[in-house]
Design goal:
Layout (H helix, E strand, L loop, with lengths): L3 E3 H7 L5 H13 L9 E3 L3 H11 E4 L3 H9 L3 E4 L12 H15 L4 E5 L3 H14 L3 E5 L7 H10 L2 E5 L6 H8 L8 E4 L4 H14 L3
Parallel strand pairs: 3-4, 5-6, 5-7, 7-8
Antiparallel strand pairs: 1-2
The structure holds zinc ion.
The site of zinc ion has 8 residues, from loops.
Amino acid sequence: MSADFAIDDWLREEGLLDDEGLALARAALVAAGLTTGKKQRMAVAKRERAREAAWAALAGWCGAAACRAAADATGKTVVRTVRERCAGCGGSNALQAARAAAAACRRANLRRAVVLGGSPAARQEALRLAQAAGGPELVFVDGDSRVTEGDARADKARADVVLAWAGTPLPHKVSDLYRRREPGDPPIITVPTTGVGQLFRALEEHARNRRP
Ligand SMILES: [Zn+2]
């Protein structure tokens, strides 16, 4: 007798969470000709093809509002899954935060944020996540760059908000140029920790509270 496995148990291991998702996944397996819809078990030899067929038809969603649009954008049928299977965040808190920030910024018409500080790795990660999430544009000012008063003024004029990323290297002589308040300057908010997720959470909170 060849080895087989219980289809529903395996689909739960694949990350599906509810009966509706299980039914949709089984339907995808039937459509792919891998099972009949009556059988509850499947030969182990078909498992890889079944995995491909299921995730070709379905997009996982972790249940977070921030991730829903990305799951819908796949054009596939959306099913509730564990976070690791989510088409929005893939289990990443930072990506989920970036998506939430992007959505809030779009609603608030906030397009460009100047970020003071941040380690090179954190800046790179934040840029990557903001791009994946679809905005806003992040402009980084690092401690090594020579910033003049004119540069700071030009940056502020083009920014909708300035984020001071706490705990990351930036000489005071640089940050002071941005902290100096003049009429018409964008708001400056302090991000209390160095985490990339925190940067996006602070941005989201600011965008949510902003008057359009
Ligand atoms: Zn998610």
